[in-house]
């Protein structure tokens, strides 16, 4: 499962990068001499299938990454379904808002960087940032609590493996959460750096889950049997 999941996630990010690079080539090189220059061409083609495709694959990658986070939260909280109720509700909001954002940006007058689409995009980013804040907090709390409870009953190596700094950073996807909050802030304040930070954030949509998968493959990640062991 994780091989297929990681492959699909990597494919989504590859498409995102290729599409955006090609769109940038069209914007700054191929059509730079059109009347009005690149800004005019960008405004006229902001809802083209090429640009919308980039937003669509980013939405899929985000949904996949958050889905893995939800599953990891469920595992780390000893498969207690109650621990996923609130995150799941936010997760549904994230998927819904991202889908609506992509659809609206594809409309004839749609523009993901202004108007209603911006509000929808902010809702999307706010939802996924909130989701990651909640899940990150829950995972960090669980790992730290587990470490304190078992520091006298587990070996030092086992504690380091499952409750060390690296485990907390990777399992809780702290870098991705921080990026999500930063992206939300620049979106809300319209600082002008949204596009640049969006690319970094989207790349971490794929990178953070891959790090978790790497730990799973190495046998270092939390599993259903971690607490019992």
Automatic annotation (TrEMBL):
<keyword id="KW-1133">Transmembrane helix</keyword>
<feature type="transmembrane region" description="Helical">
    <location>
        <begin position="7"/>
        <end position="28"/>
    </location>
</feature>
<feature type="transmembrane region" description="Helical">
    <location>
        <begin position="195"/>
        <end position="214"/>
    </location>
</feature>
<keyword id="KW-0472">Membrane</keyword>
<feature type="transmembrane region" description="Helical">
    <location>
        <begin position="85"/>
        <end position="107"/>
    </location>
</feature>
<feature type="transmembrane region" description="Helical">
    <location>
        <begin position="122"/>
        <end position="144"/>
    </location>
</feature>
<feature type="transmembrane region" description="Helical">
    <location>
        <begin position="48"/>
        <end position="65"/>
    </location>
</feature>
<protein>
    <recommendedName>
        <fullName>Fungal pheromone STE3G-protein-coupled receptor</fullName>
    </recommendedName>
</protein>
<feature type="transmembrane region" description="Helical">
    <location>
        <begin position="165"/>
        <end position="189"/>
    </location>
</feature>
<keyword id="KW-0812">Transmembrane</keyword>
